[in-house]
Design a protein that fits this description.
It is a single chain. The chain is built from 7 helices and 3 strands. It has a 3-stranded mixed sheet with strand order 1-3-2.
């Protein structure tokens, strides 16, 4: 039974992860070919949104790679990937605006973002220790060690769950600002932004589901161990 559950969770996890990655790449590539009517680049959108919200001290700089865009709260820097920074596409301005959403969250002390940021030092410890305790607990049939591993892994799951409102809120802020500031014009551009940001959000949903299913699998293994005892 445990082996079957392992296979099911592995197939589910791999399937939903690949599907999420496929959706992101497909939508990003599709809308990268559509130029925004505003003529603004990812950098210009980011800079304008930040200035509008009193965040002139936040830097915007390019970073290598594709879909490597992120906001660094420690240095107050938005880093935009090469395919976003100088691009005039719908994908580029949507991603740039989304990262500005995180900067605004940071400025306003958005609860979920603050909580997630405070979790990072704990997560750095628990994420590294959890696999060791889980493997040892399963291999050597040590329920106490397995419980400890599950507790550590639960912190990882919590981090994934807390990330969801952070990402959805950042996208919601981005859409509202872009619409009000006339950065996107017309239903078609709005649809493109929704597609790009929606696909990106789904990757976080997929990660949370996979982590939650892993946690349930470990809990089931613990249940079997305790019944055997």
């Amino acid at each position: 039974m445990a082996n079957l559950l392992f296979i099911i969770s592995m197939v589910f996890g791999l399937g939903i992860t690949l599907w999420a990655q496929f959706k992101v790449k497909r939508n990003f590539n599709k809308w990268s070919k559509v130029q925004a009517k505003s003529g603004l680049t990812g950098y210009q959108v980011a800079r304008e949104i930040l200035n509008q919200n009193g965040l002139s001290e936040v830097y915007v700089e390019p970073v290598r790679g594709k879909l490597t865009d992120h906001y660094d709260p420690t240095s107050k820097t938005i880093r935009l990937s090469e395919s976003v920074y100088d691009s005039h596409s719908i994908s580029a301005i949507a991603v740039a605006a989304h990262e500005c959403g995180h900067a605004i969250q940071h400025q306003q002390g958005y609860g979920a973002l603050v909580f997630r940021h405070n979790m990072i030092p704990i997560l750095n410890i628990t994420s590294g220790m959890a696999p060791l305790f889980l493997i040892a607990g399963i291999l050597f049939q040590l329920s106490g060690m397995l419980v400890l591993g599950i507790a550590f892994f639960a912190v990882v799951v919590l981090f994934h769950v807390v990330t969801l409102p952070v990402e959805f809120n950042a996208s919601s802020r981005a859409k509202q600002i872009m619409t009000k500031s006339n950065m996107i014009r017309g239903i078609e551009e709005e649809r493109g932004v929704n597609k790009v940001l929606g696909a990106a959000a789904f990757t976080y949903v997929a990660a949370a589901l996979v982590a939650l299913m892993e946690l349930l699998r470990y809990l089931f293994i613990l249940f079997l161990q305790q019944n055997d005892d």
